[in-house]
Amino acid sequence: xxxxxSILGIFVFDGNLNVVDEILFSTADDSxxxxxxxxxxxxxxxxxxxxxxxxxxxxxxxxxxxxFFGDFCNKNLQLTKSDVKNSVSDDVLLIQSIxxxxxxxxxxNLLVKRLREWYELxxxxxxxxxxxxxxxVMEILEKGKNELLNEISLSPLESFGADLEQExxxxxxxxxxxxxxxxxxxxxxxxxxxxxMDRLCPNIKAVCGTLLAARLIEHAGSLRRLSGMPAxxxxxxxxxxxxxxxxxxxxxxxxxxxxxxxPLVSKAPEKMHGKVSRALSDKIAIAAKVDYxxxxxxGDKLKEGLEKKFGKW
Amino acid sequence: xxxxxSILGIFVFDGNLNVVDEILFSTADDSxxxxxxxxxxxxxxxxxxxxxxxxxxxxxxxxxxxxFFGDFCNKNLQLTKSDVKNSVSDDVLLIQSIxxxxxxxxxxNLLVKRLREWYELxxxxxxxxxxxxxxxVMEILEKGKNELLNEISLSPLESFGADLEQExxxxxxxxxxxxxxxxxxxxxxxxxxxxxMDRLCPNIKAVCGTLLAARLIEHAGSLRRLSGMPAxxxxxxxxxxxxxxxxxxxxxxxxxxxxxxxPLVSKAPEKMHGKVSRALSDKIAIAAKVDYxxxxxxGDKLKEGLEKKFGKW
Lengths: 313, 313
Prior knowledge:
By secondary structure, the first copy, chain A, is mainly α. Chain A has helices spanning 28-32, 35-44, 53-62, 69-86, 90-119, 124-129, 133-142, 145-151, 166-200, 202-208, 210-220, 223-227, 231-235, 240-249, 263-267, 273-292, 299-310, and strands spanning 2-5, 9-13, 19-24. A three-stranded antiparallel sheet of chain A has the order 1-2-3, covered by helices on one side.
């Protein structure tokens, strides 16, 4: 008696290779968890064994029958669908969300520049006085022209700005509102990423901070791939162009990729950048491995070690 | 007795070039409407005359006195400020608003592409079925996955999309909301431009439609400059690169600039484009002149003439 399983179900063949018992799978999940069905069938028959190569070939001939073709096709489709469905894991969502933040930054930048140009017809002095885009948007959203001029110690009479009527101010106001909402959406996405990371990769998050951690995973493609990378690769993630220039022309190798955005690297003096990057990417590599294999939380210790060594600038 | 006016005020000099009477301006507006002050002073003195060149030079010496320096400086500043303030006319606002629409289009495009990529993890079939971006956004804003799949005659079981939990759907939803709001802002700006145009240039608007009219004014720089342009210039506004290539290398001259966006041109057969563009820019040139000098409304007649001739395709 031979036991044989395929994506269609579990089959028991006797010595003459005729089917004497079978359990057919009804859903894709069944065929993924076939162990419990195998146990069930083992309890019904004694001395079941796996077919050897010669027997297996003969058994396969049995499935060449046209009656199975449609079944195989459908089951395969079902399985593929379920695989595609389940491929959407936390890190895929994370990558979408961090890409959105990048796109939002681009869009906000474009729109704030336009907003300033327009608003400066009305109140140029205030726009020039507040360079920080987000602060500028918050302030003009909440306050009127006179109040804003007052903040930078100017009287309304001194302003070069035109006195726009209400109907010409309305479109600017709704524009400001929109830009403000975009900033809010950015914050919301940051929170979402942060929450995803608490589940997915608390250690990398602790070492790098939310945004840098998300960018690392985005560059690597997934947490799995990041966890498989040596520290030296992580160190220059995002500096591929410089790396290939180095390999081709012998120019200096890059010292860091996107991890330059980590405060420990960017605050260090120029000539220490390489050293700090090396140590940091070391810790990130450890953190990624621990996160991927769902180990315990050691991110705070990793970070502490780094800060003790390089936090003095 | 001589009458002499400057930005400080109106002065009356006697034969020995001493000041015998004066009216000083207090605001920038006064010096712009100096005629009424001149009349006032003329009523006080008889036989006032304008100084000839020799006398005028001597009078100017009088103002070389240091006591006037501060006054001149302040009055000049005041006048410049008021000029800057008043330079913000309807067409400046119009240009800002049409530029915003261009920027919004860029931002929306960027964000919708990101939205689709993200949303396709959840419901790929619907995203592929609805190509029109705005329609896509409207639909997924209002309806759930099953309802949407139903619209394209699919059952939820057939979808390749992942089943996301509520917490992973929320960030997508707030993103959709934001994109929808950007579309709303675009509509609002279009309405604003349309209202501005009814005041500023109803004739151009009637001939070209809101957006094309706004783009023409944007390219020309102002309504005044557009009204001063010959039809041939208007015809190739926005095709400057092709024009200079023509002038430098003798390549074919451009047949149209941004007026290609006018339905009469874009719907005409390829070989008629030049002819229709010529006729259209002719009418635009007329409309611009009528609008700038605030003539009556003839836009409908201009448009009718064009449509009678070229509306047959």
